[in-house]
Amino acid sequence: MAIGKLWSVTLDCADAQQLAQFWAQALDGKVAYESDNFVGVETPGGVWIGAYRIDGYQAPDWPDGTPPKQFHLDLSVSELDDAERAMLEIGATKAEHQPEPDRWRVLLDPAGHPFCISASA
Question: Residue 35 is part of a domain; what is its CATH number?
């Protein structure tokens, strides 16, 4: 029995507007809420991605480092190379360390959070 339903994932960052715009474009979502420190993106699936401005924010150092990665998002895409190009065009960067680039790619959002894209079967 489920206790709850996933409604939102919120990512810390230095610039909430920039990070929210990136995820809105990446997930075909829309900015649905804005305040001084928080911007919420509603995705077509109903899950929200939030961007929360933190003073002194430091991006995680992936794959190992300080500060460490605490979690990452995995996105299913239809074609790996095309999705990578599209993500890079809207502001992602490709992580130097790629453990299995034929199966998935590790990218970093504008705030430095790692996320993976993998081709759906």
Answer: 3.10.180.10
Tokens of 4: 């709850």
Regarding whether 62 and 51 lie in a shared domain, the answer is no
Are 80 and 64 part of one and the same domain? yes
Domain boundary among 35, 56, 77: 56
pLDDT digits 0-9 by tens, 53-72: 999 999 999 888 888 888 88
Query: Does this model's pTM top 0.85?
Result: yes
pLDDT for the residue 6: 74
5 and 45 belong to one structural domain: yes
3-state secondary structure the chain: CCCCCCCEEEEEECCHHHHHHHHHHHCCCEEEEECCCEEEEECCCCCEEEEEECCCCCCCCCCCCCCCCCCCEEEEECCHHHHHHHHHHCCCEECCCCCCCCCEEEEECCCCCEEEEEECC
Q: How much is the mean pLDDT over the chain? A: 92
Number of domains in the chain: 2
Specify the pLDDT at position 121: 60
